[in-house]
Amino acid sequence: MGRLVRLIRSASLLSLLLLVGCPYMNPPVVKQRTVSSAGGSTRVIAVMPFATRPGLVAVGSDAGMTADEVAELLANFMAEALAANGARVISPSDLATAFLSEQRPVARRDPPAAAELAASRFGATSVVMGEVLRWRERKGEAYGTNRPASVAYEMTLYQAPVPRRLWSARFDHTQRTLLADPLTARKYPGGGTRFLTAAELARWALGQSAASLMEGQWRAAQ
Fold it and tell me: How far is CA 177 from the centre of its chain?
């Protein structure tokens, strides 16, 4: 009888953890960390054109996208997501134009140069810099595929004009099915009922990143 009671209690606890989404059993898909905060850091956020991992190939892209085009797409997704979260955003294209107008290379991997120009030319209080690490399109259709979409990126938020690191994020994920991982799959657009394109997976993850960035800076400043 005692063993039966223990089993029932264990099953009840497991069910409760599944319902509330215990972070140990259901870790976040996008790993994010607020390092520090600065007053007004999210007042004007510049999003630099993203870099790409050396040798990155956009695998299986039906649209024939190059690695640079993928990086441009993700940077624009992040800018849109930040704007949707209430930030005033300086777009990647505006920053690229500003660098080129000064006959300087676009500072995709140079936080001091990016932060200084974003602050001096646009009044930015912080700058987002990112790198695309993997881009693999799904093979198949929304309701049937033998190779789900897979995307990986890293991002960092720096204060401007002095590039102190404020926040970072990493996403490294291949879409999972409801059968294999229901706790993760239910978080996707559509609740895991369909296979996402790489762009859909990236846009969803970047939306999570933008919300975390804004909330993390707000909480750290309190």
Answer: 20
Confidence of residue 109 (pLDDT cuts 50, 70, 90): very high
**3-class secondary structure per residue, 89-106:** EECHHHHHHHHHHCCCCC
Q: Which amino acid is at 85?
A: N
For residues 79-102, average pLDDT: 98
Distance of alpha carbon 132 from alpha carbon 51, whole angstroms:
6
Which CATH number goes with the domain that contains 124? 3.40.50.10610
161 cis-preceded (ω within 30 degrees of 0): yes
What do you get for the CA distance between the two ends of the chain, in Å? 52
Task: Give the integer Cα–Cα distance in Å for 50 and 127.
Answer: 12
Structure token pair of residue 19: 């319902």
Q: Does residue 109 contact residue 71 with C-beta atoms inside 8 Å?
A: no
Q: What is the pLDDT of residue 2?
A: 52
Residue 103 and residue 98: Cα distance in Å, rounded?
A: 9
Give how many domains the chain has, as a whole number.
1
